[in-house]
Amino acid sequence: MTLTPPPTPTPATARPALLRRDGVWVLIALALCLLSAVGAFFVQTNGATVAVKDLRWETASGIEMSALLYKPDSATVTAKAPAVVVSHGWWNNREMQDANYVELAKRGYVVVSIDMYGHGDSGPLPLGKEADAGTGMYDAVKLVAQLPYVDHSRIGVTGHSNGARAANFSLMIDNTAKSPLIAAALLVDNEGFYTDLTNPKKYVNNYGSRDVGIVADQYDEFFFRSYDATGKELTPPREFIHTPNAQSFLEFGKTPSGPARTAATYYTSNVDGRDAFRVIYTPAQTHPWGPFSKQTTEYTIDFFQRALGAPNPIAAGSQTWQWKELFNAVGLVGFGIFLVAFAKLLLATRPFAALRATGPLELRANSRRGLFWFWGALVVSALFSAWSYIALSQWTAIQGVVFNAVPTWIPQGAPFFIGLWSAINGVFAIVVMTVSYLLFGRKNGQDLRAVGILPGWRRFFHGIGLGLVVVIAAFSIVFVVDYFFTTDFRLWVLAVKAFTPDKIGIALLYLPLFLIYFFANSVAINGFNRFTIREKEWVNTALLAVFNALAPAILVIAQYWTFFATGDLIPGFGGIFSIWLFPVIVILAAAAVITRKIYRATNNPYIGGFIMAATVTMISVSNTLTVAS
Question: Which letter does DSSP use for residue 119 in this model?
Answer without folding.
Answer: B
